[in-house]
Structure formats: C-alpha cells, structure tokens
Amino acid sequence: MTLLELVRQALAELGLANISGVVGNNDQTVRQVFALMSRLGGDLTRDHDWQRLVREHILTTKAATMAAMLTENSAVVTVADTSGLSPKWGIWGTGARPFAQIVSVDSPTQLTMNMPADRSGTFDLQFSQVEYPLPDDWKKQIPQTEWDRTNRWPLMGPQSGQAWQSFKSGIVYSGPRERFRILGNCIALNPPPPDGLLFAFEYVSKNWVLSQDGTPKAAFTADTDTTIYDDSLMVLGAKVLFLQAKGLDFSLEDSQFQNLLDQCKAQDASSPALSISRRPANQFLSNRNIPDGSWGSPQW
Question: 173 and 196 in contact (C-beta within 8 Å)?
Fold first, then answer.
C-alpha cells in the first residue's frame, strides 16, 4: 500500500473522513496521522534486523609511504605532498609516536600531528587512513560481521573505550590483527592498516521508505511512497499512536499491534532448526584425549 492508502485505511478504521492526499495536507488530523506513521516507521528500524534493510559494506584500506621531516618535540611534519591526507589518517614509523594521527593539513607540504615527534630527522613513514565513514544510510551495526577478507580473519572488536586506550597507550601496541571501534560515525581501525586490505561488515539501513521507482529513502516525501513493512503493521501502529496521543483507550489496538509485530519478526527470515536432545557425549578428538606432546612416529 502507498502512503495515501495507508493513511486512508487508518483514518477509515478510526471512523474519520476520507482524504484525497497526505503530503501537504493542512488538515490537523491528517498531519498528525502522517507524523505518527512516519515516526513509527523510523522506530521499527531499531526494533529488528529486518532482512530488507540489511546491507553489506565493503571498504578498501588506503595507505602510502612517504619521506617525512620531523623535529623532536614538534608536532609539525613536512612531506612532499599532503594531497589526499586528512585528520582521518594516522602516521606510523620512526620518529612518530605510536598511533599518532593527523590533526590538521596546514599546507600542500605541511601537516600537524596530535603528538610531538620523539626524534629529529627525515624518515620513511607510513600514512594510513584509520577512520572510514559509515555508509550514508547506516542505522545500526550487525554485531560480529566485521571481517578482514584479505587475511580471512575477523576484526577484533568492537573495542570498549578502556580497551581502545589500553591498546593505544600500553606497552603492547601491535599485533597481526586489526582492532576496530565505532567512533564519530566512522569505523576506526588500529593498528594503522596497510594499503589495499578488504574489510567487510553488515548493517541495518535507515532507508525504510521506497519511492515509486523503488529508490530507498529514510522518510515519506510523496503520497505514492511505500514501505518495507507489512501494511497492517503500519496501520495498526499508527492507530495505537493516534489513540495514545488523544488520551483514549488503546489497549486492544496495542495488543493486536504487538502480536502482529511478533509475527512479522518471526516470518521476516528463515530460522535454524534447534535440537532439544543432549549433545553426543562421545567425541573422537577433543582437548581431553589429545596429548600435549610426544606424539611419536606414525605406524603405517
């Protein structure tokens, strides 16, 4: 159903007058139902990982090695070319303190770090992008979907603030795997990754509305727009919010809405088969029957 059809259905079930249009309608009741239905759709994106809103995002890491002139106790760095660099980039190598990051790009040949250099000289430094913007339609992350596809291992995280600072500030600050944290509407990575790694993750999109030509968007803008949700769910939800806003009894409608919401969630995607039987007790190989060492020679 289109937005116009949804609002007409809600108004009819509430015993209110029919309308010819929604967007731009100055009738107070129509405007209220429209606003409540819009809020309902946005709220439902947080309530469940709807399969029609699940997206995959793949990014490619960026890094470059350049000769840089440093001065001890100064945060100023001089390079041949600062084009392409930004405060989302980190600096790694001799003379730069661990996890140094660009604060500002001051000129075509000069930038400033967030920490002063610990020695003077000209060194080959790795400049790596360590913060990558989340997709424009990102609403929330789907946990444990973050992978380094180049090396075929999961990213370590999301890190808490405490773990993040411990890794960046402690004695041990390097390792073979990337750590990540969602920070500042970016996915932040440490240690600074080399160039060309493929990272992937899944997220829930905020674009729950579809235009007439199928283009996803985050809000209603035309009477012909549709949604990714069940039509009855939108009508019932709008009725609940409308009756609640008017101070009327909405207990019956709310019960119907919650039941329908549970059904929609359960039927949104496939579910695994779960066994209620005990797990098999006999295992041929486990940490209980493999020796720590002294395997001996195979007998053929």
Answer: no
Q: Are 37 and 6 in contact (CB under 8 A)?
A: yes
Phi, psi of 172, rounded to the nearest 5 degrees: -90, 115
Place of tokens 């995607």: 269
Of the candidates 24, 241, 42, 268, the one whose C-alpha atom is nearest the C-alpha of residue 139 is 42
Q: What dihedral angle (degrees, nearest 10) is formed by the CA atoms of 189, 193, 197, 198?
A: 0
Query: At 52, phi and psi to the nearest 5?
Result: -75, -10
Share of the chain above pLDDT 70, in %: 91
- What secondary structure letter does DSSP report for 109? T
Given a cut of 70, whether residue 169 has pLDDT beyond it is yes
Residue 270 and residue 267: Cα distance in Å, rounded? 7
- Contacts of residue 88, Cβ cutoff 8 Å, sequence gap at least 6: 102, 129, 130, 131, 132, 186
Residues 106/87, Cβ–Cβ less than 8 Å:
no
Helices (H), 14-134: 28-47
Average pLDDT over residues 134-151: 96
The pair of structure tokens assigned to 226 is 């549709």
Which structure tokens are listed for 149? 């596809």
Q: What is the pLDDT of residue 290?
A: 61
259-264-7-238 Cα dihedral, nearest 10 degrees: 40
